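Quick one, T. Sequence first:
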Amino acid sequence: MKEPMDGLTKEFIAYADSLGTQRCIILSPGQIEQLRSQATEEVKGRFDLLNSDDFKELHAAVILGVFGYDDIFADFANREQNIGLTGIHQNYWQVADRIGKELLSFLKLKGFKAKFNGEGILPIKHVLNRLRIGQYGKNSLIYIKDYGSYNDNWVELFTNAPLQPIKRGVAKNLEGFSMCDKCNACMTRCPTKAIYEPYKVDLNKCICNLTHRVDRVPKDLFDKVDNWIWGCDKCQNVCPGNAKVTPRKRHPDASISHPGPGGKLPPAHKNPFPKLAMELVEEYDTKYLQNVLIALGNSGKSEDIEKIEVFSRTKKGLELTEYCEYAMDRVKNRRE
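C-alpha coordinates:
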Protein backbone atom coordinates (compact mmCIF):
# COMPACT_ATOMS: atom_id res chain seq x y z
CA MET A 1 0.00 0.00 0.00
CA LYS A 2 1.34 3.42 -0.93
CA GLU A 3 2.21 5.61 2.04
CA PRO A 4 0.23 8.91 2.22
CA MET A 5 2.29 11.93 1.23
CA ASP A 6 2.92 14.54 3.92
CA GLY A 7 1.94 18.18 3.43
CA LEU A 8 5.42 19.60 2.76
CA THR A 9 6.31 16.93 0.21
CA LYS A 10 2.96 17.29 -1.55
CA GLU A 11 3.39 21.07 -1.76
CA PHE A 12 6.97 20.74 -2.99
CA ILE A 13 6.08 18.26 -5.75
CA ALA A 14 3.05 20.28 -6.84
CA TYR A 15 5.26 23.37 -7.14
CA ALA A 16 7.90 21.43 -9.11
CA ASP A 17 5.19 20.18 -11.47
CA SER A 18 3.81 23.69 -11.95
CA LEU A 19 7.30 24.90 -12.94
CA GLY A 20 7.56 22.29 -15.68
CA THR A 21 9.39 19.23 -14.37
CA GLN A 22 8.55 15.82 -15.81
CA ARG A 23 10.32 13.97 -13.01
CA CYS A 24 10.80 14.83 -9.35
CA ILE A 25 12.69 12.16 -7.43
CA ILE A 26 13.29 12.53 -3.69
CA LEU A 27 15.94 10.37 -2.01
CA SER A 28 16.31 9.81 1.72
CA PRO A 29 19.75 9.44 3.37
CA GLY A 30 19.11 5.70 3.68
CA GLN A 31 18.34 5.38 -0.03
CA ILE A 32 21.45 7.34 -0.96
CA GLU A 33 23.54 4.97 1.12
CA GLN A 34 21.85 1.94 -0.45
CA LEU A 35 22.46 3.33 -3.92
CA ARG A 36 26.11 3.92 -3.08
CA SER A 37 26.59 0.41 -1.68
CA GLN A 38 25.16 -1.16 -4.85
CA ALA A 39 27.25 0.92 -7.25
CA THR A 40 30.41 -0.19 -9.01
CA GLU A 41 33.68 1.12 -7.60
CA GLU A 42 33.90 3.63 -10.43
CA VAL A 43 30.40 4.98 -9.74
CA LYS A 44 30.80 4.99 -5.94
CA GLY A 45 33.22 7.88 -6.23
CA ARG A 46 30.36 10.07 -7.46
CA PHE A 47 28.80 9.88 -3.98
CA ASP A 48 31.94 10.94 -2.10
CA LEU A 49 31.37 14.68 -2.45
CA LEU A 50 28.28 14.35 -0.28
CA ASN A 51 30.60 13.73 2.68
CA SER A 52 32.20 17.19 2.32
CA ASP A 53 31.40 20.12 4.62
CA ASP A 54 29.20 21.65 1.91
CA PHE A 55 26.75 18.76 2.03
CA LYS A 56 27.09 17.04 5.43
CA GLU A 57 23.94 18.67 6.88
CA LEU A 58 21.93 18.29 3.68
CA HIS A 59 20.75 14.73 3.98
CA ALA A 60 17.92 14.51 1.42
CA ALA A 61 18.47 14.73 -2.32
CA VAL A 62 16.03 15.90 -4.98
CA ILE A 63 16.61 15.04 -8.64
CA LEU A 64 14.63 17.05 -11.19
CA GLY A 65 14.21 15.96 -14.80
CA VAL A 66 13.06 18.00 -17.80
CA PHE A 67 12.12 16.24 -21.04
CA GLY A 68 14.17 17.83 -23.80
CA TYR A 69 12.93 16.18 -26.99
CA ASP A 70 10.74 18.78 -28.66
CA ASP A 71 9.10 19.47 -32.03
CA ILE A 72 12.16 21.25 -33.46
CA PHE A 73 14.44 18.35 -32.55
CA ALA A 74 11.96 15.85 -33.92
CA ASP A 75 12.10 17.71 -37.23
CA PHE A 76 15.91 17.50 -37.13
CA ALA A 77 15.76 13.76 -36.52
CA ASN A 78 13.40 13.15 -39.43
CA ARG A 79 15.49 14.61 -42.22
CA GLU A 80 18.89 13.96 -43.74
CA GLN A 81 21.50 16.01 -41.93
CA ASN A 82 25.03 15.74 -40.63
CA ILE A 83 24.80 16.77 -37.01
CA GLY A 84 23.39 14.61 -34.24
CA LEU A 85 20.93 15.71 -31.62
CA THR A 86 23.48 14.40 -29.15
CA GLY A 87 25.89 17.01 -30.48
CA ILE A 88 23.61 20.02 -30.31
CA HIS A 89 23.12 21.41 -26.84
CA GLN A 90 19.39 21.47 -26.44
CA ASN A 91 19.66 24.05 -23.68
CA TYR A 92 16.81 22.56 -21.75
CA TRP A 93 19.51 22.68 -19.11
CA GLN A 94 18.69 26.35 -18.65
CA VAL A 95 15.02 25.42 -18.17
CA ALA A 96 15.96 22.79 -15.58
CA ASP A 97 18.43 25.22 -14.01
CA ARG A 98 15.74 27.88 -13.55
CA ILE A 99 13.33 25.34 -12.03
CA GLY A 100 15.99 24.09 -9.63
CA LYS A 101 16.81 27.58 -8.42
CA GLU A 102 13.14 28.42 -7.88
CA LEU A 103 12.70 25.25 -5.80
CA LEU A 104 15.83 26.19 -3.87
CA SER A 105 14.18 29.51 -2.97
CA PHE A 106 10.98 27.64 -2.03
CA LEU A 107 12.85 25.51 0.53
CA LYS A 108 14.79 28.44 1.95
CA LEU A 109 11.62 30.49 2.39
CA LYS A 110 10.27 27.56 4.40
CA GLY A 111 13.28 27.91 6.72
CA PHE A 112 15.29 24.93 5.49
CA LYS A 113 18.87 24.75 4.29
CA ALA A 114 19.35 23.78 0.68
CA LYS A 115 22.03 23.71 -1.98
CA PHE A 116 21.48 23.64 -5.73
CA ASN A 117 23.87 21.68 -7.90
CA GLY A 118 23.20 22.09 -11.59
CA GLU A 119 26.15 20.06 -12.87
CA GLY A 120 25.24 16.78 -11.23
CA ILE A 121 26.83 14.86 -8.36
CA LEU A 122 24.76 11.70 -8.23
CA PRO A 123 25.15 9.06 -10.98
CA ILE A 124 21.72 9.65 -12.51
CA LYS A 125 21.53 6.53 -14.70
CA HIS A 126 22.42 4.30 -11.74
CA VAL A 127 19.83 6.01 -9.53
CA LEU A 128 17.04 5.79 -12.13
CA ASN A 129 17.78 2.15 -12.83
CA ARG A 130 17.94 1.06 -9.20
CA LEU A 131 14.69 2.85 -8.40
CA ARG A 132 13.12 1.03 -11.38
CA ILE A 133 12.27 4.35 -13.02
CA GLY A 134 14.58 3.81 -15.99
CA GLN A 135 15.79 0.78 -17.90
CA TYR A 136 19.13 0.44 -19.64
CA GLY A 137 19.10 -0.11 -23.36
CA LYS A 138 21.82 -2.18 -25.00
CA ASN A 139 23.33 1.13 -26.16
CA SER A 140 23.98 1.86 -22.43
CA LEU A 141 21.51 4.77 -22.45
CA ILE A 142 18.73 4.93 -19.90
CA TYR A 143 15.11 4.78 -21.07
CA ILE A 144 12.09 6.14 -19.22
CA LYS A 145 8.49 5.31 -20.05
CA ASP A 146 6.96 7.91 -22.40
CA TYR A 147 10.30 9.73 -22.82
CA GLY A 148 12.52 7.05 -24.34
CA SER A 149 16.23 7.87 -24.13
CA TYR A 150 15.68 11.62 -24.60
CA ASN A 151 15.73 12.49 -20.90
CA ASP A 152 19.17 13.85 -20.09
CA ASN A 153 18.34 17.25 -18.56
CA TRP A 154 18.74 16.67 -14.83
CA VAL A 155 19.59 18.94 -11.92
CA GLU A 156 19.91 18.25 -8.21
CA LEU A 157 19.01 19.84 -4.90
CA PHE A 158 20.29 18.80 -1.49
CA THR A 159 18.41 19.85 1.63
CA ASN A 160 17.76 19.22 5.31
CA ALA A 161 14.01 19.52 4.67
CA PRO A 162 12.14 16.36 5.81
CA LEU A 163 10.88 15.54 2.33
CA GLN A 164 9.34 12.12 1.93
CA PRO A 165 10.81 9.75 -0.69
CA ILE A 166 8.33 9.02 -3.46
CA LYS A 167 9.72 5.57 -4.19
CA ARG A 168 10.71 3.55 -1.16
CA GLY A 169 12.41 0.54 -2.68
CA VAL A 170 15.94 0.36 -4.06
CA ALA A 171 16.25 -2.78 -6.19
CA LYS A 172 19.10 -5.14 -5.34
CA ASN A 173 18.56 -7.49 -8.26
CA LEU A 174 17.63 -6.07 -11.65
CA GLU A 175 17.73 -9.37 -13.51
CA GLY A 176 15.01 -9.35 -16.13
CA PHE A 177 14.53 -5.59 -15.83
CA SER A 178 15.39 -4.95 -19.46
CA MET A 179 13.47 -3.36 -22.30
CA CYS A 180 15.49 -4.85 -25.15
CA ASP A 181 14.67 -8.56 -25.10
CA LYS A 182 16.15 -9.98 -28.34
CA CYS A 183 16.41 -6.66 -30.17
CA ASN A 184 19.94 -5.75 -31.27
CA ALA A 185 19.12 -2.86 -33.62
CA CYS A 186 21.52 -0.42 -31.95
CA MET A 187 24.37 -2.94 -32.02
CA THR A 188 23.95 -3.96 -35.65
CA ARG A 189 23.43 -0.39 -36.94
CA CYS A 190 26.24 1.33 -35.03
CA PRO A 191 28.59 2.55 -37.82
CA THR A 192 31.80 1.87 -35.86
CA LYS A 193 30.56 -1.19 -33.91
CA ALA A 194 31.18 0.76 -30.72
CA ILE A 195 28.47 -1.25 -28.92
CA TYR A 196 30.63 -4.34 -28.74
CA GLU A 197 28.30 -6.34 -26.49
CA PRO A 198 24.92 -5.63 -24.89
CA TYR A 199 25.10 -2.62 -22.52
CA LYS A 200 28.82 -2.08 -23.23
CA VAL A 201 30.12 0.82 -25.36
CA ASP A 202 33.71 1.39 -26.45
CA LEU A 203 34.05 5.18 -26.16
CA ASN A 204 37.16 5.02 -28.35
CA LYS A 205 34.84 4.07 -31.22
CA CYS A 206 31.65 5.94 -30.35
CA ILE A 207 31.10 8.67 -32.98
CA CYS A 208 29.42 10.96 -30.45
CA ASN A 209 32.53 10.78 -28.29
CA LEU A 210 34.96 10.94 -31.24
CA THR A 211 33.41 14.04 -32.78
CA HIS A 212 33.26 16.28 -29.74
CA ARG A 213 35.13 14.81 -26.77
CA VAL A 214 38.54 13.64 -28.05
CA ASP A 215 41.28 15.63 -29.78
CA ARG A 216 41.70 13.45 -32.86
CA VAL A 217 39.69 10.81 -34.66
CA PRO A 218 41.86 7.71 -35.31
CA LYS A 219 42.66 7.41 -39.02
CA ASP A 220 41.37 3.83 -39.24
CA LEU A 221 37.92 5.13 -38.28
CA PHE A 222 37.72 8.02 -40.76
CA ASP A 223 35.54 6.14 -43.23
CA LYS A 224 33.33 4.73 -40.46
CA VAL A 225 32.41 8.19 -39.17
CA ASP A 226 30.45 8.71 -42.39
CA ASN A 227 29.07 12.27 -42.55
CA TRP A 228 28.53 12.85 -38.81
CA ILE A 229 30.38 16.01 -37.82
CA TRP A 230 29.14 16.64 -34.29
CA GLY A 231 27.46 13.86 -32.36
CA CYS A 232 25.64 10.79 -33.67
CA ASP A 233 22.07 9.58 -33.20
CA LYS A 234 22.17 6.24 -34.97
CA CYS A 235 21.61 4.01 -31.93
CA GLN A 236 18.72 6.20 -30.74
CA ASN A 237 17.12 6.66 -34.16
CA VAL A 238 16.90 2.91 -34.86
CA CYS A 239 15.72 2.00 -31.36
CA PRO A 240 12.10 0.77 -31.08
CA GLY A 241 12.09 2.24 -27.56
CA ASN A 242 12.10 5.73 -29.11
CA ALA A 243 9.69 5.02 -31.96
CA LYS A 244 6.55 6.15 -30.11
CA VAL A 245 8.00 9.02 -28.12
CA THR A 246 5.87 12.13 -28.57
CA PRO A 247 7.87 15.38 -28.89
CA ARG A 248 6.98 18.14 -26.47
CA LYS A 249 6.07 21.63 -27.66
CA ARG A 250 9.16 23.83 -27.72
CA HIS A 251 9.69 25.51 -24.35
CA PRO A 252 10.02 29.29 -24.76
CA ASP A 253 13.15 29.37 -22.58
CA ALA A 254 14.96 26.65 -24.52
CA SER A 255 17.38 27.33 -27.35
CA ILE A 256 19.80 25.47 -29.62
CA SER A 257 23.53 25.99 -29.30
CA HIS A 258 26.40 24.64 -31.35
CA PRO A 259 30.23 24.76 -31.41
CA GLY A 260 30.34 27.22 -34.32
CA PRO A 261 30.94 30.98 -33.99
CA GLY A 262 28.48 32.49 -31.54
CA GLY A 263 27.07 29.06 -30.77
CA LYS A 264 24.61 29.29 -33.67
CA LEU A 265 23.83 26.65 -36.24
CA PRO A 266 25.54 27.41 -39.57
CA PRO A 267 23.54 27.15 -42.83
CA ALA A 268 24.59 23.56 -43.49
CA HIS A 269 22.50 22.40 -40.56
CA LYS A 270 19.35 24.02 -41.86
CA ASN A 271 19.51 22.10 -45.11
CA PRO A 272 20.05 18.47 -46.11
CA PHE A 273 23.64 17.27 -46.49
CA PRO A 274 25.97 17.97 -48.29
CA LYS A 275 26.78 21.64 -47.83
CA LEU A 276 29.80 21.00 -45.65
CA ALA A 277 32.35 22.93 -47.67
CA MET A 278 30.53 26.09 -46.59
CA GLU A 279 31.73 25.34 -43.06
CA LEU A 280 35.44 25.32 -43.88
CA VAL A 281 36.07 28.75 -42.40
CA GLU A 282 38.85 29.58 -39.98
CA GLU A 283 36.68 30.96 -37.19
CA TYR A 284 35.39 27.46 -36.46
CA ASP A 285 37.07 25.34 -33.80
CA THR A 286 39.90 23.13 -35.12
CA LYS A 287 38.22 19.99 -33.79
CA TYR A 288 35.00 20.84 -35.57
CA LEU A 289 36.86 21.52 -38.85
CA GLN A 290 38.63 18.17 -38.52
CA ASN A 291 35.24 16.48 -38.41
CA VAL A 292 33.97 18.46 -41.41
CA LEU A 293 36.97 17.38 -43.48
CA ILE A 294 36.44 13.71 -42.59
CA ALA A 295 32.77 14.01 -43.57
CA LEU A 296 33.73 15.71 -46.84
CA GLY A 297 36.08 12.85 -47.57
CA ASN A 298 33.26 10.38 -47.02
CA SER A 299 30.42 12.23 -48.74
CA GLY A 300 31.71 15.37 -50.47
CA LYS A 301 31.19 16.19 -54.15
CA SER A 302 33.65 17.21 -56.89
CA GLU A 303 32.62 20.86 -56.54
CA ASP A 304 33.95 20.78 -52.96
CA ILE A 305 37.56 20.09 -54.01
CA GLU A 306 38.41 23.71 -54.75
CA LYS A 307 37.07 24.85 -51.38
CA ILE A 308 39.07 22.16 -49.58
CA GLU A 309 42.23 23.24 -51.43
CA VAL A 310 41.65 26.91 -50.53
CA PHE A 311 41.09 25.97 -46.88
CA SER A 312 44.21 23.73 -46.83
CA ARG A 313 46.37 26.85 -47.32
CA THR A 314 44.90 28.73 -44.34
CA LYS A 315 46.51 28.69 -40.90
CA LYS A 316 44.07 26.11 -39.53
CA GLY A 317 44.12 24.19 -42.78
CA LEU A 318 47.89 23.75 -42.43
CA GLU A 319 47.29 22.32 -38.93
CA LEU A 320 44.88 19.81 -40.46
CA THR A 321 46.93 18.70 -43.48
CA GLU A 322 46.21 15.00 -42.86
CA TYR A 323 42.48 15.64 -42.91
CA CYS A 324 42.60 17.94 -45.95
CA GLU A 325 44.52 15.29 -47.88
CA TYR A 326 42.03 12.60 -46.84
CA ALA A 327 39.09 14.72 -47.98
CA MET A 328 40.62 15.65 -51.35
CA ASP A 329 41.89 12.14 -52.12
CA ARG A 330 38.56 10.49 -51.35
CA VAL A 331 36.51 13.03 -53.33
CA LYS A 332 38.88 12.80 -56.32
CA ASN A 333 38.76 9.00 -56.24
CA ARG A 334 34.98 9.04 -56.29
CA ARG A 335 34.98 11.48 -59.23
CA GLU A 336 37.27 9.21 -61.20
